[in-house]
């Protein structure tokens, strides 16, 4: 976990709420004050702020923020202020409503969260949208995409450390056969990725490399433009090396013509309290540039300040 939080004894929730209310009042909004408070509060503290604000002013602070802020800055503050499970539900709902074949948000949520966190996100989805995430995924996706995504969001994976090496060798061979035959949507291939524990999948993919001399994702690059294969590769990367997956999302977001603020915002908001320190190290290793410097070069204003505050708060994690 990151060190975003401030020691509980040093914080008065009511003081935070009062200061945030002042930031919205009068002429102009005090964006700097909003950043200085919210970017240094952990999920539990932000929930307390939201609850206290609602009971004090009879309004959800998210509504107050949305009224006062705009564009990318509003988006990152909004996502950051949400409870993590509510945020995942919100992002998943957006992803199903705006489904495109290159959309990997559902894979991120299904494969990089713990089983417990995914369950909490699904419960938040029920509460917010009065239906299940599986229902929306099934309705909005088709074909191979639905075949892969539905079990990914629906599974409650085992999270223990036990590994069955005999099974790993057998399933590595099975995966290799299916990929050699280009049966990328095979039931067994999807079953292995969608149901096995992450440590078991890691063992299987290590066996795959040992037995056949190549990383599985290299074998899945048969057609780099195939969007289903891209989703399959993202699934494997999210299950095995999430920090490498998220580093690439950030790199692609800020290294192309025009910044993909949506992707950058999502990764920073969802990973700041999880593994941002590791993502930053991976970014530095991969690009020979600190992530802070790359973000500062590519973004501006309050949005830049909030991003840097969130990734900077992870420095001692």
Which tags fit this structure?
single chain; 317 residues; 20 helices; 0% strand
Shape: globular
Kindly report the average pLDDT value: 93
- The string of secondary-structure elements, in order, is HHHHHHHHHHHHHHHHHHHH
User: Stretches where pLDDT falls below 50 for ≥5 residues?
Assistant: none
Q: Whole-number radius of gyration?
A: 21 Å
Describe the structure.
Pfam families: Annexin (PF00191). GO terms for molecular function: calcium ion binding; calcium-dependent phospholipid binding; phosphatidylserine binding. Belongs to the annexin family. This is Annexin. The chain is about 70% helix and about 0% strand. The protein is mostly helical and about 325 residues long. Helix 4 packs antiparallel against helix 5. It is globular. The N and C termini lie close together (about 5 Å). The mean pLDDT is about 95.
Q: How would you sum up this structure in a few lines?
A:
Keywords: Annexin, Calcium, Calcium/phospholipid-binding, Metal-binding, Repeat. The chain is mostly helical and 317 residues long.
């Amino acid at each position: 976990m990151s060190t975003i939080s401030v020691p509980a004894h040093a914080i008065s929730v009511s003081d935070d709420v009062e200061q945030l209310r002042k930031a919205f009042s009068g002429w102009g909004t005090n964006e700097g004050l909003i950043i200085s408070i919210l970017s240094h509060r952990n999920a539990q503290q932000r929930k307390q702020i939201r609850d206290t604000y609602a009971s004090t002013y009879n309004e959800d602070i998210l509504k107050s923020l949305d009224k006062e802020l705009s564009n990318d800055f509003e988006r990152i503050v909004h996502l950051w202020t949400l409870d993590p499970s509510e945020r995942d539900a919100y992002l998943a709902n957006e992803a199903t409503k705006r489904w495109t074949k290159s959309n990997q948000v559902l894979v991120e949520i299904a494969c990089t969260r713990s089983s417990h966190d995914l369950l909490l996100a699904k419960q938040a989805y029920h509460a917010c949208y009065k239906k299940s995430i599986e229902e929306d995924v099934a309705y909005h996706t088709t074909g191979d995409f639905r075949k892969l995504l539905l079990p990914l969001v629906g599974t409650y994976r085992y999270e223990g450390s036990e590994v069955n090496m005999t099974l790993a060798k057998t399933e590595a061979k099975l995966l290799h056969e299916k990929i050699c035959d280009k049966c990328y949507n095979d039931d067994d291939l999807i079953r292995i990725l969608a149901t096995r524990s992450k440590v078991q999948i890691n063992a299987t993919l290590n066996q795959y490399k040992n037995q056949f001399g190549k990383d599985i994702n290299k074998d899945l690059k048969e057609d780099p433009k195939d969007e289903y294969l891209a989703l399959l590769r993202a699934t494997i990367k999210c299950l095995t090396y999430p920090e490498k997956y998220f580093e690439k999302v950030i790199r692609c977001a800020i290294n192309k013509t025009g910044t993909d603020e949506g992707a950058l915002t999502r990764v920073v908001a969802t990973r700041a309290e999880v593994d941002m320190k590791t993502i930053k190290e991976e970014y530095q290793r991969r690009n020979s540039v600190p992530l802070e410097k790359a973000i500062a070069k590519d973004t501006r204003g309050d949005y830049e300040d909030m991003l840097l505050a969130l990734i900077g708060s992870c420095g001692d994690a």
